Structures are given as structure tokens and as C-alpha cells.
């Protein structure tokens, strides 16, 4: 072992400045305290969010007790010392000095957020609990009732521990086949119903995240059509029940009646089937008992049904069976038939995978070049630690433990790719961006397998290697050959690719002689919670979510900031400091780069994000996945987002191109597909267009008319010498319902325009548009007549409309809403001047409200007010919610069950920026 980050004789902890912080995490919606621990110790450069996540998620011991961990040192020592002790015990280190170097290097990297193990390592290693280190599991089920019931049991135990599992149900005979007793079989879809109910019950029993599971069915199974349409039909049910008045929202009282919602579904397709789709041929559905063809169906029609269901509800995803098994290192032992819930881990049934991810931004030098040599050395340390963990790990079932110890599957990966590409001036959807991503991924996997071969020489290859040696070597050669096909464009990817080529050549030579220690080395996981722990801007292989993000403040409150990678990207593109500052200021105001001052249009693509004004095209995501897939042992956790306007044909194209480009798995999500749910209009002529056989349920506001007799008031006013009258009518139970404005002579153009304007506002109020919305839009409008008024509460007005809506706000809005709009009575302003009230200020005299607020000595309150944007319902708790305000529409993401914050996409799962909870298994 050689030192890379550390200095001999100096402990890593002594090189940083430590500080004590208080962690108090509240529910964003109601303000209740979810978690509190004061005086925790972290390095000064750790962000508030990372400190909160690690303290609440990973510190062990009862909160408030002396046994509770209170320092990052304790957490890292608990894990690292366990790894080192077991490394020594199992013969990994030649000398005690080697073990010390390993300990110091691992400690330094974890403390400086260079990489992180997956969550189960932090939960369990070094504690009195079972030493479970894996987050990803694959189960198996056979065509017997005993096996099916055992599936329920094993899945439940895995869910209980907060992990997820996947399995393939294709061995279960179809509902079109007979049982040995002569009756008809139930079929796999019926058994899915029981497993789904079990998962839902365990979820509601107190788990911190949902029961994550993947269910796979082969495309030649006779029940495949029922499987494809399972979740789409349930979405139809959700919509119908909601329309009937049932509470079908997330976690709603009546939502438990909906089935199949706790699993991701995927169809496993073969090359034979995809070629039949390509040629519009027939495809046989085969009996599970004897393999005979039960029915021949049109391949293209079946493929269309897969795409149609995914278009409607995002399920099923698709897995490409022949591609997966062509890259399988252990085919003599068994086929790969399923994946974990997030689709990145694919290997033998009854197995598990231990994950760890590197923070790619830690390898970007000041001159914006990628430090390939440092990356290589870091991967060597991390993969060594990951392999040691299998030597002492516990597993949820005996079968999973046996398979994992025999094949030692690992899943090293990375996060922050999107940030790295932007910082180096690469568009995510560009040849240069894909070349750099491919070179880095190739170097990572090549180094991992090279170190695996070196470990095999020291402590022996994995137990199943001898039987699978030829296949394993064949796959290694496939990886190396794919590396040779990478086309480079820039000094960064050229340097990385050159080193990757060298590493693959050396690894092949060592492996041919000594074998390999691990049947699998790399995957690309969602990196949800651990991504927050490492302060990553982007997760896994994902691009940036948006250019403006939400950030919590240490003193409380929050603010929005422009991504820190933007200035580095502009520098990489050759812009000067003054230009960079102007562009950043523009992004802060507008949320995008279109028409930013001084930014050349050809550089816009560098700042394209997953969502927002310029979002990356769906095929751009697919092309990036295809660029890195040949350099991964497993697959990629990623969902390809598609716009709401995408058609079923677009989904078909994505799924078909995924097969052509050599992906192992693919899932899509069409915006709002679970909000405005399209329904089938029934069986029509096959020649009809898609629009002819689909209809959209539309939700319209209902007009609440005023009663014949209603309370009202009339106000006479003068603005800049022009006289007029404002008549306002209210609902008997409170609330403004109509206005009439008399201004100008009867029959004049001005009088006619004001009558039409009054009717328009009145109808809008009766349809439910809040008065505060109108006030925020019309106050401060400037046009003649303007000037002094005869109203003591509104002394100056910039126009008649400015006066009218300030007067209406004073008469009909509560103080809290007026305070946010900066509208106060003369008594309230007097109280503020005299120091009696700190709730707000008035800008009636032309005073800029934001400037006045900035004098208040409370940075937290200032940041919070900047997010509220004039509406107390628009409080921002995450980057997703900030993006909703920017785009003016709701994002398709669930609320966190722990803290109430809206989650953000992370791979094929969701991540809570507030508390670190994830909806997946990693």
C-alpha cells in the first residue's frame, strides 16, 4: 500500500479544523421537530445539509444517551477500523504498515467526501447489529406454492431492514395452464397482488422509506399482456375513485385500495422478440411447464402495449435479456434473470451487491483537467475495502449469503458526473461530454478489475471463478475492446482514455494468470443519501436538475443560489470575470441562460439541465447511458424523463433505441402522466391515430356565484385629480366576489373599458382566483392618472389600478397576507415606525420593499421572505419546489414521508434533500 492523500506520522484528523454544530431538523410543512442533536462535531468545510443527513441517518445510539455518536470521527472510526481489522484477519495486508496506510487513506477520503460506502455500511458496520453491508438484493421464486410463500417471507425481511429486492416471476406457470390437480393456475400477476399488499403493510409499519421492489416478467410468458397493463389499469382506478370523491392522494385514507403500487415492473425482452418487432413478425408465448407455444402474437402490437402502458403510468420499464447475459461473467452457474429495484445491479438469483460511489468533482484540478492518476489510486483503495466487507458481512437469507460469498459481487460507481461535465465546459448531450464520461467509467471499471485480479493473486479468486473462467475472461476482453472504440475529443478525455487503455491491458495480463477476486465490479447507482453526504451537486449519471438551487442557511431559513459549477463552466469556456458575474446574475434572476448578456448561443447547451427552460432531450439521456454502459459490470439506475407532449411512438422509439445502443435496462417517465391520466376510449379501428383512441380527463374550476342579496360597500376616491367610485360585493360567509368601478362619463371609452375590466375580475374571483394574486399583479402599475389620493391609508398611487387593488387588499385581506405584499393601514405603519410591530413594512410611498427589509437584522428571515414571493403557500423546501416556482407547474415527485419536503429525482428513485430519505434501495 502506498500513501496518496496522507502524510506519514500525521493523522488525517489533525489536518482539518473541527467545529461543533447543532442539528435541529423540522417538518417543513408544520414546523414540528423531527430530529434534534446538539453539539455534533464535523470538519468546518462540511455543509449544513451534509451534517444534518449524517447526524440524523448514520450516527448510532439512542438520541440523548451517552452512547449516542456525536462526531464524524466516531462514525468513520467505527466503520474504517472494522474494515482494517478484518483485512488483517483475512490476510489482505502484507505488513502492519500497509494496514495503517490503508486505515489513514480510507479515513482521509471519507472525511474529505471523496467517496462514500452505501447506507447499510454506515447503519450497521461496527455496531452490535447484524453487519449487513449490501443495499441491493435479487431473490428467486419457483413454480411451487412453498417457493411463492417463501418469496413473501424473504422479501418482507429485506423490506424490514430498509433495503429492496427484485425477482423474476417467469418460472410461475401462467393463468392459461393447468395445475397437476387439474385446476387452472392463478398466474404470476395474482401472486403479485399478495406480495404488493405485504410490502405496503411493512411500509406502513414504520419504515423510513417505502418497500422498494422490482418485479420482472419475460416477454414470452403467456400472462405478459396482463402484466404489462397491471399498473396502468390501477391508475385508471385511481382517477375514477378520485373523481368520485375518495382520498386517493399520496398516503390518502383510501389509497390503500390501489394495488401493485409498491413495485417497479419491468418486461424482460429478448433479441428474438426485438427482431420480430423490427420486422413486424409474429412472436410465440410459451408454456412454463413444457416450453410449447401457447399463442403467437404480433410482436409490434405487444411492443406497442408496453410503450402505451409506460406512456400512461411510467411502468413497465424494459430489460434487454440477451445483452445482459452477453456481459455475464458467470453463465455456467446460472443466467441473470432479474435486477434490484433500481435496475443497476444484475447478477445471479439469490445474491446481493455492496455499493460505493466516488465524487468525481474531487478529481477536477484547478486548471479544469481531470486527475486520472489520482482517480485510479482512489479506486484501488475503495475496491479493496469493498471486497474486505464481504469477508465479515451478514446477509438476510442463507442462500443470498452463500451466493455472495462465492461470487463477491461489488458495485463501485460515481456521482457528480453532470456537475463535472458542466464545470469542464461540456454539454451533457454532446460527443465531448459522452467521451469524457466513457473514459472515466472505463478507467474506473478497468482499475477495479485490475485490483480485483491483484487481490486474487494475494487471497485467491472468487469461489465460482474456476467454473466460469473462460466466460469471465471473455467479458474482460469485451470491456477492453469497447475501450479501444472510444473516440476522444479533448485533452481531458484523451488523458483519461490513455490511462484506461493501459490499466485494461495490465489487468487482463494479471487476471489471465491469477483470476479475479470479484465476479462483478461496477454499477451506476442513484447515490441518493450518500450523494448528499458528499455534498454532490448531481447524483449518479444524472445531469444537473436546474441551474438555480435551494440552499439552507446555518442560522435558519433558506435561499436560492446559482450552481457553483456555472462559474467554472464559464471560465472553462473562456469568459472573463466580468462576463461571468453578469451571466451568473442573469441566471439568478431568470433561472436559465437564454439571452444572458455576453453568453454566446453556441454555449447554451453546456448549461442544459434535466428540467427548466432548456431541458435535455430524452434521447440525450439515452445516448449518455449508451456511452458508459460497455464499461459497467452491471447497469445504470436512471429514468429518462419525457415531456408531457411525448407520444406513445416516442416511448417506442426510446425503448427500441435502447436495445440498438446496447443498454441493459431502461425506464421512462412522462411528465404529469400520473396527474392528467389519459384513458383508453375502447377498442377502435387499428388504423386510427393515437389521438383518436385516447381522451384526456380535464379538471375545470367551478364558478361560485354570489347570492341575490349580498353585503357590499362603496368607496369614493380621487387619484391625481380624477374622481371615481369602487363598489365591492362580498359573499355572506366572507370573501370578495365582485367589483364595479365607475370612472369617466357614461358612454365614454374609459367607462366601457373599466366596466369590462370589472366584469373580468369579478368572474375570476367567482372561479376561485385569490384576491392576493390580483393585488400582486396590479399594484405598482404606472400610468395616468396617478399621484395624490384622498385616502389616508393609500396616500400615493402610481395608477388608478394601483389604488383600487391596494384599497381592496386593505378591506378584504388579512394582515399576514398584506404584510407579505407590503400593504398596511396608516395605523399599522405608525406602529412600525414607533417600533411596536416587526411584521413588515409599507412601500406605499414608493419605498422599495426588499431594500427596507434588508435593514432588518435577520438573515434567515430575509432569505425566507425572498422565497415566499408574495404567497405564504409558496414556501420553498427543496430544489424541486424552487423549480416548481420557476416553471409555474407542479413537479411529478412525492412528498417525503419523514419531513414533508418534496423529493427530487435520483436515478430511478427519489431523494429528499431535507432529511436524506430515499424511495429506493441504495
TrEMBL record:
The keyword Lyase does not apply. Belongs to the ribonucleoside diphosphate reductase class-2 family. Residues 707-811 form the TSCPD domain. Residues 855-878 are annotated as: Disordered. This is Vitamin B12-dependent ribonucleotide reductase. It comes from Saccharopolyspora erythraea (strain ATCC 11635 / DSM 40517 / JCM 4748 / NBRC 13426 / NCIMB 8594 / NRRL 2338). One of its GO terms (biological process) is DNA biosynthetic process. Its EC number is 1.17.4.1. Residues 23-113 form the Ribonucleotide reductase class II vitamin B12-dependent N-terminal domain. Pfam families: Ribonuc_red_2_N, Ribonuc_red_lgC, TSCPD.
Amino acid at each position: 500500500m502506498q500513501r496518496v492523500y496522507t502524510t506519514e506520522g500525521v493523522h488525517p484528523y489533525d489536518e482539518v479544523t473541527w467545529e461543533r454544530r447543532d442539528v435541529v431538523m423540522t417538518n417543513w410543512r408544520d414546523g414540528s421537530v423531527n430530529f434534534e442533536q446538539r453539539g455534533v462535531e464535523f470538519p468546518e468545510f462540511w455543509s449544513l445539509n451534509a451534517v444534518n443527513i449524517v447526524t440524523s441517518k448514520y450516527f448510532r445510539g439512542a438520541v440523548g444517551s451517552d452512547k449516542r455518536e456525536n462526531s464524524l470521527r466516531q462514525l468513520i472510526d467505527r466503520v474504517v477500523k472494522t474494515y482494517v481489522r478484518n483485512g488483517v484477519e483475512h490476510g489482505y495486508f502484507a505488513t502492519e504498515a500497509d494496514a495503517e496506510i490503508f486505515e489513514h487513506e480510507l479515513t482521509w477520503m471519507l472525511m474529505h467526501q471523496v467517496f462514500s460506502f452505501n447506507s447499510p455500511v454506515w447503519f450497521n458496520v461496527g455496531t452490535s447489529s447484524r453487519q449487513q453491508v449490501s443495499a441491493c438484493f435479487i431473490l428467486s421464486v419457483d413454480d411451487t406454492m412453498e417457493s411463492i410463500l417463501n418469496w413473501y417471507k424473504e422479501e418482507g425481511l429485506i423490506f424490514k431492514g430498509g433495503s429492496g429486492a427484485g425477482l423474476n416471476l417467469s418460472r410461475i406457470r401462467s393463468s392459461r395452464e393447468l395445475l397437476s390437480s387439474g385446476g387452472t393456475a392463478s398466474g404470476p400477476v395474482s401472486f403479485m397482488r399478495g406480495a404488493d399488499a405485504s410490502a405496503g403493510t411493512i411500509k406502513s409499519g414504520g419504515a423510513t422509506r417505502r418497500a422498494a421492489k422490482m418485479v420482472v416478467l419475460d416477454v414470452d410468458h403467456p400472462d405478459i399482456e396482463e402484466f404489462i397493463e397491471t399498473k396502468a389499469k390501477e391508475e385508471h382506478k385511481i382517477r375514477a375513485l378520485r373523481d368520485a370523491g375518495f382520498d386517493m392522494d399520496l398516503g390518502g385514507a383510501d389509497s390503500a385500495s390501489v394495488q401493485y403500487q409498491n413495485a417497479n415492473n419491468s418486461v424482460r425482452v429478448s433479441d428474438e422478440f426485438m427482431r420480430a418487432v423490427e420486422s413486424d413478425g409474429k412472436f410465440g408465448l410459451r408454456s412454463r411447464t413444457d416450453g410449447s407455444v401457447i399463442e403467437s402474437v404480433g410482436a409490434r402490437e405487444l411492443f406497442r402495449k408496453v410503450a402505451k402502458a409506460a406512456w400512461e403510468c411510467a411502468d413497465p420499464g424494459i430489460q434487454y435479456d440477451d445483452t445482459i447475459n452477453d456481459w455475464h461473467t458467470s453463465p455456467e452457474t446460472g443466467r441473470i434473470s432479474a435486477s434490484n429495484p433500481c435496475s443497476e445491479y444484475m447478477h445471479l438469483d439469490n445474491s446481493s451487491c455492496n455499493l460505493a460511489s466516488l465524487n468525481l468533482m474531487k478529481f477536477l484540478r484547478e486548471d479544469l483537467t481531470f486527475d486520472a492518476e489520482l482517480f485510479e489510486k482512489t479506486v484501488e483503495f475503495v475496491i479493496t475495502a469493498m471486497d474486505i466487507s464481504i469477508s465479515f458481512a451478514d446477509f438476510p437469507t442463507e442462500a443470498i449469503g452463500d451466493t455472495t460469498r462465492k461470487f463477491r459481487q461489488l458495485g463501485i460507481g460515481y456521482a457528480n458526473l453532470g456537475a463535472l461535465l458542466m464545470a469542464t465546459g461540456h454539454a451533457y448531450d454532446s460527443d465531448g461530454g459522452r467521451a469524457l464520461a466513457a473514459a472515466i467509467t472505463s478507467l474506473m471499471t478497468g482499475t477495479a478489475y485490475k485490483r480485483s485480479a491483484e487481490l486474487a493473486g494475494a487471497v485467491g479468486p472468487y469461489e465460482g471463478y474456476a467454473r466460469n473462467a473462460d466466460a469471465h475472461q471473455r467479458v474482460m476482453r469485451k470491456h477492453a475492446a469497447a475501450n479501444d472504440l472510444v473516440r476522444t475529443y479533448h485533452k481531458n478525455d484523451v488523458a483519461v482514455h490513455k490511462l484506461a487503455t493501459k490499466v485494461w491491458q495490465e489487468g487482463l495480463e494479471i487476471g489471465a494468470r491469477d483470476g479475479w477476486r470479484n465476479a462483478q465490479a461496477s454499477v451506476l447507482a442513484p447515490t441518493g443519501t450518500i450523494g448528499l453526504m458528499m455534498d454532490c451537486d448531481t447524483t449518479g449519471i444524472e445531469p444537473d436538475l436546474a441551474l438555480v438551487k435551494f440552499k439552507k442557511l446555518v442560522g435558519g431559513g433558506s435561499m436560492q443560489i446559482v450552481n457553483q459549477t456555472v462559474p467554472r463552466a464559464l471560465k472553462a469556456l473562456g469568459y472573463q470575470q466580468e462576463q461571468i458575474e453578469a451571466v451568473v446574475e442573469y441566471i439568478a434572476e431568470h433561472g436559465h441562460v437564454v439571452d444572458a448578456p455576453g453568453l454566446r448561443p453556441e454555449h447554451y447547451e453546456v448549461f442544459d439541465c434535466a428540467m427548466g427552460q432548456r431541458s435535455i432531450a430524452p434521447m440525450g439521456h439515452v445516448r449518455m447511458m449508451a456511452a458508459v454502459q460497455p464499461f459497467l459490470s452491471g447497469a445504470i439506475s436512471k429514468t429518462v424523463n419525457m415531456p408531457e407532449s411525448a407520444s406513445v411512438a416516442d416511448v417506442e422509439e426510446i425503448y427500441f433505441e435502447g436495445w440498438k445502443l446496447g443498454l441493459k435496462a431502461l425506464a421512462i417517465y412522462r411528465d404529469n402522466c400520473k396527474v392528467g391520466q389519459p384513458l383508453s376510449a375502447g377498442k377502435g379501428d387499428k388504423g386510427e391515430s393515437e389521438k383518436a383512441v385516447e381522451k384526456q380527463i380535464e379538471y375545470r374550476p367551478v364558478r361560485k356565484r354570489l347570492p341575490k342579496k349580498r353585503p357590499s360597500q362603496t368607496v369614493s376616491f380621487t387619484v391625481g385629480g380624477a374622481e371615481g367610485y369602487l363598489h365591492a360585493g362580498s359573499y355572506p360567509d366572507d370573501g370578495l366576489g365582485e367589483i364595479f368601478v365607475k370612472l369617466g362619463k357614461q358612454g365614454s371609452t374609459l367607462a366601457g373599458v373599466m366596466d369590462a375590466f370589472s366584469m373580468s375580475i369579478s368572474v375570476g374571483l367567482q372561479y376561485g382566483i385569490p384576491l392576493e394574486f390580483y393585488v400582486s399583479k396590479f399594484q405598482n402599475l404606472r400610468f395616468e392618472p396617478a399621484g395624490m389620493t384622498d385616502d389616508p391609508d393609500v396616500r400615493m398611487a402610481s395608477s388608478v389600478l394601483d389604488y383600487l387593488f391596494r384599497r381592496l387588499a386593505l378591506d378584504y385581506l388579512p394582515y399576514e397576507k398584506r404584510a407579505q405584499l407590503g400593504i398596511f393601514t396608516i395605523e399599522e405603519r405608525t406602529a412600525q415606525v414607533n417600533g411596536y410591530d416587526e411584521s413588515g413594512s409599507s412601500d406605499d410611498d414608493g419605498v422599495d420593499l426588499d431594500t427596507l427589509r434588508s435593514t432588518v437584522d435577520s438573515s434567515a428571515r430575509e432569505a425566507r421572505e425572498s422565497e415566499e414571493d408574495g404567497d405564504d403557500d409558496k414556501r420553498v423546501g427543496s430544489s424541486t419546489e424552487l423549480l416548481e416556482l420557476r416553471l409555474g407547474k407542479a413537479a411529478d415527485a412525492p412528498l417525503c414521508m419523514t419531513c414533508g419536503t418534496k423529493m427530487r429525482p435520483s436515478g430511478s428513485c427519489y431523494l429528499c434533500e431535507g432529511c436524506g430519505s430515499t424511495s429506493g434501495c441504495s
